[in-house]
Amino acid sequence: MAEKVRQVYGEAAQEALGAAIGRHLRPGTVVHLRGEIGVGKTTLTRGMLRGLGITAPVKSPTYTLVEPYQVPRAAVYHFDLYRLGDPEELHFFGAEEYFSSDSICILEWAERAGEALPPPDLVLQAAYRDATSRTVRLEALTDKGRAVLEGLAEDNGDMDGE
Question: Average pLDDT of 21-46?
Fold first, then answer.
């Protein structure tokens, strides 16, 4: 497991971190976003989608559970499982079919799915520091996740303490 911690100051910086992450996401990658409500999971996701090249408006799929996007290198699926009542609901709309070697899946509130979906390659844990800043811990659990962290390190040098 590899881990980096990033301090972000303001929504624009949080979205920029997401964009930097998105530039390094490859097909077959699963990203989980964790943190309290309002901490900026959707802001990070919007940034990742921008980093992948998506210019369309990004809306949270709180009621639809998943919002699909397409970029030249992959299908991208943004899940928001906040309103998921039971992990079995995921099977009713075929959620497991979204996870393939050709797709990138970004999940907010993934913990609500239990063991119903594939495990993450990368976990982003956002936490409040104060009213305008956040701490984002990036935890790579697989080689795909580690490749994202390595790409970020090459872009920005060592991310620790920033």
Answer: 95
Specify the DSSP element, H or E, that contains 46. Answer: helix 41-51
CB 107 within 8 Å of CB 117: yes
Please tell me the distance from the alpha carbon of residue 58 to that of residue 137, in angstroms, as a whole number: 23
Compute CA distances 92 → 12, 96, 116, whole Å: 37, 10, 12
Which residue in 91, 62, 90, 65 sits closest to 77, CA to CA? 65
Instruction: Give the other-Cβ count within 10 Å of 147's Cβ.
Output: 18
For residue 150, how far is the Cα from the chain centroid? 17
pLDDT, tens digit, for every residue of 102-144?
A: 999 999 999 999 889 999 999 999 999 888 899 999 999 999 9
- The two tokens of residue 5 are 């911690």
